[in-house]
Model the fold of this input.
Amino acid sequence: MFSKWINAILTAVLVIASGATQADDIEIYYGGAAVAGSEPMVMLSLDYRPNLGSSACTGNECDFLINEGYLAPTGPYTFFDLLRAALRKVMDPLEDIRVGLMINHDNKNNCAGPGQVGCSNGGYIGRGFLPFDAGDTNNAKAQYHDFLANVPTPQGNVSHSYQGKELFFEFFRYLTGQGIYNGHNGYTDFGSDSSQNLDQDFPAIAWDKSIETGNKLSYVTHMPLHCSGNSSFFVTPSKQTVILSL
Done:
């Protein structure tokens, strides 16, 4: 089961990066090097559920990741360790592509919309779209992996239910430069109490403030200037893969 959705994530990233055309209603136009600002965009969504903490790599199935330095030489390993190692491997050679990361908040106390206090709901953008290049000259890949490395391994109450429609809605608002809706509703995220928000409890894995306007009320739009050259994948470990053509 674990390998199936890891393969789905890696395949999706590689497909969009290579510019392959998928399905009748999805077209990715890609010829040579991408023009700056028109690169394909991939948004990965982390389904932060408890079984990410399950044991993984109990045999020799992960030796290639260990031998190549993507996993520590000795275990034990969790499914989350394996996911992070697999993403490092597949992202290392990527270039001419923009990648981001979203995560669901915890879902408690029925809060929705801006200005909420002491509750969590919806989803947030942990890493906004940044261009990847093979040599990581802008440090975008390192920042991406550092973010994931700081996310605690789920266990017990340190996990978040998957809120698909809320996550997609926040993503839409980011793309179109609209107001932040649930992005800052993270008071009970990652097992914390409700006294402080996510950016105070866990600043290393809070929302990406660089994609927000100066007043922190809206997103800086990321709708592409050249729409024919951009598509976004939403890949999750859940049963569905959502593909948006922009």
